[in-house]
Amino acid sequence: MIAEITKYSCVLLLSVFMSACAQVLLKKSALKTYATKIKEYLNPYVITGYGIFFLATFFSVVAYKKVPLSYGGILESTSLLYATFLGKVFFHEKINVRKIIAMLVIILGIIIFSIK
């Protein structure tokens, strides 16, 4: 039972990470200028980003078949960690003290919730 929940929790974490990657693609697209509105919405970044969102949603649905809802919210909070690091890597965003404190609080919350 615990091994099964762990396996599906990893699927949920993968889903959350995939969503963060899709957000990077959509932001990359938003930072560009397009000649027409149709090109703004039908370009490789947007199409791939929404395709990844679709797969991530599918994985989430599969994962929630075994992952208790009380764990799901905790695991999905890791998206803030992924978004921070992907923002740093792809957009050279600064990681300031507030972001570090926020990430530490998230990690601490996950640890405390996991202990019970």
Description:
The structure is a single chain. With 116 residues, this protein is an all-alpha fold. Helix content is 81%, strand content 0%. It has 6 helices and no strands. The chain has helices at 2-30, 37-41, 44-63, 69-76, 79-91, 97-115. It is flat. The two termini are 17 Å apart. Residues 32-114 form the EamA domain. The chain crosses the membrane at residues 42-64, 71-91, 97-115.
List the helices and strands and how they pair.
Blueprint: H1 2-30, H2 37-41, H3 44-63, H4 69-76, H5 79-91, H6 97-115
Counted beta strands: 0
Mean pLDDT: 94
Largest sheet: none
- What sequence of helices (H) and strands (E) makes up the elements? HHHHHH
Taking Cα atoms only, what radius of gyration do you get, to the nearest Å?
Answer: 16 Å
- Our count of domains comes out at 1
Number of helices: 6
Which band does the percent of strand residues land in? Answer: under 5%
Helix content: over 70%
Distance between the termini: 17 Å
Low-confidence stretches: none
Overall SS class: mainly alpha
Shape: flat
What attributes characterize this protein structure?
single chain; 116 residues; mainly alpha; 6 helices; 81% helix; 0% strand
Task: Summarize this structure briefly.
Residues 32-114 form the EamA domain. The chain crosses the membrane at residues 42-64, 71-91, 97-115. With 116 residues, the protein is mainly alpha-helical.
